[in-house]
């Protein structure tokens, strides 16, 4: 069954009207017609199943027959703070971390970030990454695509992460610890209920640029409560590091 995105404001009762890029995809790419069934999501966690009623005026009218609520499988929120890489690597990173279930993506400008964007290009890139995130969410079956924030400065990112329980900084600092050791630290269990105590609910992964974070940025991160960690003996490229880190966190914390 084909799967599409419907903005919440386009849904009235049991009728949804799809227009723009999604309507074009339905009509001209998938070539769906009346009475064919589709699945759609509105980006807030709801999944809709229904059939096409009308395809006139470059719009698709859908009768909603079933509404399903998405449940977050783990209860753990994961944010990726990604220093802007060169070329189009950020496109790849956004697509892959969406498939791996990231909840928030924060592009960040650091001292050694090579890419420098003026305001119009920042806006254009943010729109592009949000579109890639939405397409990746459609492809992998997510009902709620991650939030992709605008490009931020390093101090602003550290301030934003103040509410996170576990903040991991992937860097080449000599005092870093292995990621697996941090994630496998025994968690306390309540004797009566058997439930885990102090389990992190909000986890932030900070991946640096080509050339790594500066010592000053690492110091600022430590002061903000970040733990310097390593992914192993090999030095990974930023796009490889982001995907590897998220996959490991998923394995250890989400199950």
Task: Give the distance, in angstroms, between the N- and C-terminal Cα atoms.
Answer: 28 Å
Q: CATH topology of the largest domain, which one?
A: Alpha/beta knot
Number of strands: 16
Mass-distribution shape: elongated
- Please describe the biggest sheet, giving its number of strands, its sense, and whether it closes into a barrel: 8 strands, parallel
Overall mean confidence score, pLDDT: 89
Question: What's the number of domains?
Answer: 2
Assess the beta-strand content as a share of residues: 25-35%
Continuous helix count = 7
- State the fourth-level CATH superfamily of the largest domain: SPOUT methyltransferase, trefoil knot domain
Order of helices and strands: EEEHEEEEHEHEEHEEHEEEHEH
| Overall helicity | 25-40%
What structural class results from the helix and strand content? Answer: alpha/beta
Which CATH class of the largest domain is shown?
Answer: Alpha Beta
* Radius of gyration from CA coordinates: 21 Å
| Low-confidence regions | 188-193
CATH structural architecture of the largest domain: 3-Layer(aba) Sandwich
Explain how this protein is built.
This protein is α/β, with parallel strands linked by helices. It has 7 helices and 16 strands. Strands 7, 8, 9, 10, 11, 12, 15 and 16 form an 8-stranded parallel β-sheet that branches. A 6-stranded mixed β-sheet has the order 1-4-5-6-3-2. The longest helix has 22 residues, at 119-140. It is elongated. The two termini are 28 Å apart. Mean pLDDT is 89; it is low at 188-193.
């Amino acid at each position: 069954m084909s799967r599409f995105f419907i903005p919440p404001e386009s849904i009235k009762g049991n009728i949804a009207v799809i227009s723009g890029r999604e309507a074009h995809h339905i009509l001209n790419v998938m070539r769906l017609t009346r009475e064919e069934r589709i699945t759609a999501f509105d980006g807030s966690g709801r999944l809709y199943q229904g059939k096409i009623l009308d395809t006139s005026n470059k719009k698709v009218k859908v009768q909603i027959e079933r509404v399903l609520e998405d449940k977050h499988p783990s209860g753990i929120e994961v944010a990726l703070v990604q220093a802007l890489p060169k070329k189009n690597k950020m496109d790849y990173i956004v697509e892959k971390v969406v498939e791996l279930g990231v909840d928030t993506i924060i592009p960040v400008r650091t001292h050694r970030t090579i890419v420098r964007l003026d305001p119009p290009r920042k806006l254009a890139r943010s729109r592009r990454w949000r579109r890639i995130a939405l397409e990746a969410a459609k492809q992998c079956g997510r009902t709620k695509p991650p939030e992709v924030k605008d490009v931020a400065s390093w101090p602003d990112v550290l301030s934003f992460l103040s509410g996170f329980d576990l903040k991991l900084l992937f860097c080449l600092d000599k005092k870093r610890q292995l990621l697996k050791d941090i994630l496998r630290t025994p968690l306390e269990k309540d004797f009566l209920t058997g439930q885990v105590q102090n389990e992190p609910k909000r986890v932030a992964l900070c991946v640096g640029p080509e050339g790594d974070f500066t010592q000053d940025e690492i110091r600022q991160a430590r002061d903000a409560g970040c733990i310097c960690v390593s992914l192993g003996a090999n030095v990974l490229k930023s796009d490889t590091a982001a995907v590897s880190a998220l996959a490991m966190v998923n394995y250890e914390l989400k199950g």
